[in-house]
Design brief:
It is built from 5 helices and 5 strands, in the order ββαβαααββα. By secondary structure, it is α+β, with helices and mostly antiparallel strands. The radius of gyration is 14 Å and the shape is globular. The protein has helices spanning about 35-45, 60-70, 70-80, 95-105, 130-135, and strands at about 15, 25-30, 50-55, 115, 120-125. It has a 5-stranded mixed β-sheet, sandwiched between helices. Helix 1 links the parallel strand 2 (about 25-30) and strand 3 (about 50-55). The longest helix is centred in the last third of the chain and has 12 residues, at about 95-105.
Length: about 140
């Protein structure tokens, strides 16, 4: 398990169904193909996603632009698609620094990392059917 309580609110990009009963936090890198696949799957699910970009593969410049975009959700999906991101990347990105410190302190050296609301953690991509059952299995 992984407690996310040490993470500040800043650094999180919330997308998906923001009113969904279930929330999943994902640590991702915009250069990670498995992260792209995971976000594509999560987009089709009734789940609130808290994405916390970390630069494992050298994508910090993209993370800055996504985080500073007016429409962060559109920017996330543009980034994974390799499309232009409508952002100048100029805003307070200390939350992204906090994501990276947290990842380093907790040994998160690969992406994606998926954390359920009860702290249960998975490393790596999983298919939709597995994720739906796993997320529903959260203990409150």
């Amino acid at each position: 398990t992984l407690s996310l309580s040490a993470l500040p609110k800043e650094g999180a990009i919330v997308w998906g169904n923001k009113a969904a009963a279930q929330t999943v936090t994902i640590f991702t890198d915009f250069h990670c193909g498995y992260c792209r696949g995971l976000t594509s799957v999560l987009r089709t699910m009734n789940v609130r996603v808290v994405e916390r970009p970390i630069s494992i593969l050298g994508s910090r410049d993209i993370a800055d632009r996504v985080y500073c975009a007016k429409d962060q959700e559109a920017a996330i999906h543009a980034a994974y698609a390799g499309a232009p991101i409508k952002s100048d990347g100029k805003c307070d990105t200390r939350g992204l620094d906090a994501n990276e410190r947290f990842a380093a302190q907790h040994g998160l050296s690969g992406t994606p990392v998926i954390v359920r609301s009860d702290g249960a953690m998975l490393e790596g991509y999983r298919p939709k059917e597995f994720l739906e059952a796993w997320i529903r299995g959260a203990k409150s």
